[in-house]
Amino acid sequence: MQILFAFVLVVLLLALTDPFMYWMPESAAMVALLVAAGMVAVFAGFMLKENGGDERDATHRAFAGRVAYLAGLGVLTIALLVQGFSHTLDMWVPLALGTMVIAKIAARIFAERYR
Q: Which of 44, 57, 104, 114 could bridge to 5 as Cys pair (CB 3.0-4.6 Å)?
Protein backbone atom coordinates (compact mmCIF):
# COMPACT_ATOMS: atom_id res chain seq x y z
CA MET A 1 0.00 0.00 0.00
CA GLN A 2 2.81 2.44 0.88
CA ILE A 3 4.57 1.71 -2.42
CA LEU A 4 1.38 2.49 -4.33
CA PHE A 5 0.95 5.82 -2.54
CA ALA A 6 4.61 6.71 -3.10
CA PHE A 7 4.25 5.92 -6.81
CA VAL A 8 1.03 7.94 -7.14
CA LEU A 9 2.61 10.87 -5.30
CA VAL A 10 5.71 10.84 -7.52
CA VAL A 11 3.58 10.71 -10.68
CA LEU A 12 1.41 13.60 -9.46
CA LEU A 13 4.43 15.69 -8.46
CA LEU A 14 6.10 15.06 -11.82
CA ALA A 15 2.90 16.07 -13.58
CA LEU A 16 2.77 19.22 -11.45
CA THR A 17 6.36 20.28 -12.09
CA ASP A 18 6.34 19.25 -15.76
CA PRO A 19 10.15 18.92 -15.86
CA PHE A 20 10.33 18.22 -19.60
CA MET A 21 7.88 20.99 -20.60
CA TYR A 22 5.73 18.35 -22.24
CA TRP A 23 2.41 19.96 -21.53
CA MET A 24 1.03 23.27 -20.47
CA PRO A 25 -1.96 22.49 -18.27
CA GLU A 26 -4.81 24.90 -17.99
CA SER A 27 -5.47 26.44 -14.61
CA ALA A 28 -8.30 24.01 -13.80
CA ALA A 29 -6.08 21.01 -14.54
CA MET A 30 -3.27 22.55 -12.49
CA VAL A 31 -5.60 23.09 -9.53
CA ALA A 32 -6.90 19.53 -9.80
CA LEU A 33 -3.34 18.16 -9.91
CA LEU A 34 -2.33 20.34 -6.98
CA VAL A 35 -5.30 19.23 -4.87
CA ALA A 36 -4.72 15.57 -5.75
CA ALA A 37 -1.00 15.78 -4.95
CA GLY A 38 -1.74 17.54 -1.67
CA MET A 39 -4.33 14.97 -0.65
CA VAL A 40 -2.08 12.03 -1.49
CA ALA A 41 0.86 13.64 0.32
CA VAL A 42 -1.20 14.31 3.44
CA PHE A 43 -2.68 10.83 3.38
CA ALA A 44 0.66 9.12 2.79
CA GLY A 45 2.47 11.26 5.34
CA PHE A 46 -0.03 11.41 8.15
CA MET A 47 -2.82 8.90 7.71
CA LEU A 48 -1.11 5.65 6.76
CA LYS A 49 -0.68 3.70 9.94
CA GLU A 50 2.31 1.56 10.66
CA ASN A 51 1.62 -1.63 12.50
CA GLY A 52 3.44 -2.05 15.77
CA GLY A 53 5.87 -4.87 16.12
CA ASP A 54 9.00 -5.92 17.89
CA GLU A 55 12.29 -4.09 18.33
CA ARG A 56 13.40 -4.83 14.77
CA ASP A 57 10.35 -3.06 13.39
CA ALA A 58 11.06 -0.03 15.57
CA THR A 59 14.67 -0.04 14.37
CA HIS A 60 13.57 -0.27 10.74
CA ARG A 61 11.12 2.62 11.16
CA ALA A 62 13.80 4.72 12.88
CA PHE A 63 16.27 3.94 10.08
CA ALA A 64 13.70 4.85 7.40
CA GLY A 65 12.95 8.11 9.19
CA ARG A 66 16.64 8.92 9.44
CA VAL A 67 17.24 8.22 5.75
CA ALA A 68 14.20 10.31 4.77
CA TYR A 69 15.37 13.19 6.98
CA LEU A 70 18.88 13.10 5.52
CA ALA A 71 17.55 12.89 1.95
CA GLY A 72 15.26 15.88 2.52
CA LEU A 73 18.08 17.80 4.20
CA GLY A 74 20.40 17.07 1.27
CA VAL A 75 17.92 18.06 -1.41
CA LEU A 76 16.91 21.25 0.38
CA THR A 77 20.55 22.20 1.03
CA ILE A 78 21.39 21.72 -2.66
CA ALA A 79 18.30 23.76 -3.61
CA LEU A 80 19.36 26.48 -1.16
CA LEU A 81 22.86 26.64 -2.65
CA VAL A 82 21.74 26.55 -6.29
CA GLN A 83 19.01 29.14 -5.78
CA GLY A 84 21.25 31.27 -3.57
CA PHE A 85 24.01 31.44 -6.15
CA SER A 86 21.53 32.27 -8.91
CA HIS A 87 19.93 34.96 -6.71
CA THR A 88 16.45 33.44 -7.10
CA LEU A 89 15.94 32.07 -3.61
CA ASP A 90 12.42 30.82 -2.98
CA MET A 91 11.40 31.47 0.64
CA TRP A 92 9.98 27.95 1.03
CA VAL A 93 13.39 26.29 0.70
CA PRO A 94 15.00 27.88 3.79
CA LEU A 95 11.68 27.68 5.63
CA ALA A 96 11.40 23.93 5.01
CA LEU A 97 15.07 23.38 5.83
CA GLY A 98 14.84 25.34 9.06
CA THR A 99 11.61 23.60 10.05
CA MET A 100 13.19 20.17 9.55
CA VAL A 101 16.24 21.01 11.64
CA ILE A 102 14.29 22.72 14.44
CA ALA A 103 11.73 19.88 14.58
CA LYS A 104 14.51 17.31 14.85
CA ILE A 105 16.25 19.21 17.64
CA ALA A 106 12.97 19.77 19.51
CA ALA A 107 12.00 16.09 19.19
CA ARG A 108 15.43 15.03 20.41
CA ILE A 109 15.24 17.34 23.46
CA PHE A 110 11.72 16.13 24.23
CA ALA A 111 12.74 12.46 23.91
CA GLU A 112 15.77 12.88 26.16
CA ARG A 113 13.85 14.81 28.79
CA TYR A 114 10.55 12.91 28.98
CA ARG A 115 11.37 9.34 27.97
A: 44
Domain boundaries along the sequence of the chain: 1-49, 52-115
| CB distance 59 to 49 below 8 Å | no
Which pTM was predicted? 0.71
Q: In sequence order, which ranges of 18-114 are alpha helices (DSSP H)?
A: 27-42, 55-85, 92-114
- Measure the CA–CA gap between 77 and 93, rounded to whole angstroms: 8
Write b or e for each residue in 97-110: b if 16 or more Cβ atoms lie within 10 A of its Cβ, otherwise e: beeeeeeeeeeeee
pLDDT by residue (tens digit) across 42-76?
Answer: 887 777 766 767 888 888 888 988 999 999 999 99
